């Protein structure tokens, strides 16, 4: 399961509304792909439908879908949002990551 902090929830709902999505019915798709300076990088986008093979769950009123392969890398992760002058945007606090890059956008196991 992926947890969503209150600040991340507020930003997700705001961005979904701006982009024509409905946070009560649509999803945040979270995934992992090869790349980045540490080997794996995070993907985050909005989606209106879930595939049969996706894991679907909800935390803090945010509906999340994750493909089965990415789910193995993301179990226990918390999605947070860091704003302000030095903020990075969305941040993944992943307990499975053994090493992360300086920007926090990629990781390795």
Please tell me about this protein's structure.
With 109 residues, this protein is an alpha+beta fold. The chain is 18% helix and 39% strand. It is built from two helices and nine strands, in the order E-H-E-E-E-E-H-E-E-E-E. It has a six-stranded mixed beta sheet with strand order 4-5-2-3-9-8. The model has no long low-confidence stretch (mean pLDDT 85).
Looking at this protein, list some descriptive labels.
39% strand; 2 helices; 18% helix; three-stranded mixed β-sheet; 109 residues; alpha+beta; six-stranded mixed β-sheet
Topology, pairings included?
Blueprint: E1 3-4, H1 6-18, E2 27-34, E3 40-47, E4 55-59, E5 62-66, H2 68-74, E6 78-82, E7 89-93, E8 99-100, E9 106-108
Parallel strand pairs: 1-6, 2-5
Antiparallel strand pairs: 2-3, 3-9, 4-5, 6-7, 8-9
Put simply, the count of helices is 2
Radius of gyration: 13 Å
Strand content: 35-45%
Separation of the first and last Cα atoms: 18 Å
- The order of strands across the largest sheet is 4-5-2-3-9-8
Mean of pLDDT = 85
Low-pLDDT windows of residues? none
Shape: globular
Order of helices and strands: EHEEEEHEEEE
Question: Helical percent range?
Answer: 10-25%
Based on helices, strands and strand pairing, what is the structural class? alpha+beta
The total count of strands amounts to: 9
Sheet bearing the most strands, described?
A: 6 strands, mixed
């Amino acid at each position: 399961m992926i947890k969503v902090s209150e600040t991340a929830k507020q930003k997700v709902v705001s961005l979904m509304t701006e982009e024509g999505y409905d946070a009560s019915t649509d999803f945040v798709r979270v995934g992992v792909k090869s790349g980045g300076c540490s080997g794996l990088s995070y993907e985050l986008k909005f989606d209106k439908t879930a595939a049969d093979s996706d894991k679907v769950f909800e935390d803090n009123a945010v509906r999340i879908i994750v493909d089965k392969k990415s789910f193995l890398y993301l179990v226990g992760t918390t999605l947070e949002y860091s704003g302000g002058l030095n903020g990075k945007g969305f941040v993944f606090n992943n307990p499975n990551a053994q090493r992360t890059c300086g920007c926090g956008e990629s990781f390795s196991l």
